[in-house]
């Protein structure tokens, strides 16, 4: 009987672990019950990577890391642990050595960049009244409202934090591009996915919140990765 890796889901900016709700349900219904979702502090890449490493180290056996948005930078930094057997990027940053999410975004700015506002404490917010059109335009308004009000803002300085040794250079990887993404320019997603030479790339006609708007398709990619890594 094959053993599947534990799947650890890593969220991004302007949302928490609950952004994975629909994917979690879908994975569980397909028999993948060894699931965890990290709640990141979003205070620095170092802090977020360390929080992820701690959860990885708590697992018995192999781990598949799945990162959405900025969570892709986190799994890129934290994914070098020996029991991490693969990485899945969902509309995510995948920085190279010395690169930061902010630096990557400057090359091809996202459509919604003007809708980000820093506060007096150093946190960067996605304007509440612009959240739906910026982050999840393919979700119902009520669902977008709840996501906007519960958004988890990062310290703005986190955008400039750089990756040291990118795990995708040595770990099997998969990538999902969102072609209608307004938070990470789809061109940046194509560039990042191409250079990592993933085992598979899929493109969804989805917003940045593909994990919520097309959870079945996102789950199918994660399942494909998990099956190929089962021992």
By CATH, the topology is Rossmann fold
Q: Please state the average pLDDT score.
A: 97
Give the C-alpha Rg: 16 Å
Number of domains: 1
Please provide the count of β strands.
8
Shape: globular
Report the β-strand fraction as a percent range.
15-25%
Question: What is the chains' assembly state?
Answer: single chain
Looking at CATH, the homologous superfamily is Alpha/Beta hydrolase fold, catalytic domain
Helix content: 25-40%
Uncertain runs are none
H-E string: EHEHEHEHEEHHEHEHH
Class from helix and strand fractions: alpha/beta
Question: Can you tell me about this structure?
Answer:
This protein is α/β, with parallel strands linked by helices. The strands form two sheets. Strands 2-1-3-4-7-8 form a six-stranded parallel sheet, sandwiched between helices. A two-stranded antiparallel sheet has the order 5-6. The chain is globular. The protein starts with 5 loop residues before the first strand and ends with a helix. Strand 3, helix 3 and strand 4 form a beta-alpha-beta unit. The protein has nine helices and eight strands. About 35% of the residues lie in helices and about 15% in strands. The protein has a single domain, classed as Rossmann fold (3-Layer(aba) Sandwich).
């Amino acid at each position: 009987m094959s053993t599947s890796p534990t799947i650890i889901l890593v969220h991004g900016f302007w949302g928490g672990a609950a952004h994975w709700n629909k994917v979690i349900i879908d994975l569980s219904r397909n028999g993948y019950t060894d699931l965890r979702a990290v709640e990141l502090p979003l205070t620095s890449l170092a802090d977020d990577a360390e929080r992820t490493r701690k959860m990885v180290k708590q697992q018995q056996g192999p781990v598949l890391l799945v990162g959405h948005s900025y969570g892709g930078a986190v799994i890129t930094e934290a994914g070098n642990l020996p029991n991490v057997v693969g990485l899945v990027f969902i509309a995510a940053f995948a920085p190279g050595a010395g690169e930061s999410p902010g630096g990557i975004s400057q090359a091809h700015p996202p459509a919604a960049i003007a809708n980000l506002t820093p506060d007096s404490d150093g946190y960067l917010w996605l304007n509440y009244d612009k959240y739906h059109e910026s982050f999840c335009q393919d979700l119902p308004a009520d669902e977008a409202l709840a996501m906007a009000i519960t958004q988890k803002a990062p310290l703005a300085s986190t955008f400039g934090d750089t990756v040291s040794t990118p795990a995708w250079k040595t770990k099997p990887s998969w990538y999902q591009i969102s072609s209608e993404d307004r938070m990470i320019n789809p061109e940046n997603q194509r560039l990042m996915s191409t250079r990592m030479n993933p085992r598979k790339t899929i493109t969804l006609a989805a917003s940045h919140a593909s994990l919520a708007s097309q959870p079945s398709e996102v789950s199918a990619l994660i399942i494909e990765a998990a099956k190929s890594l089962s021992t």
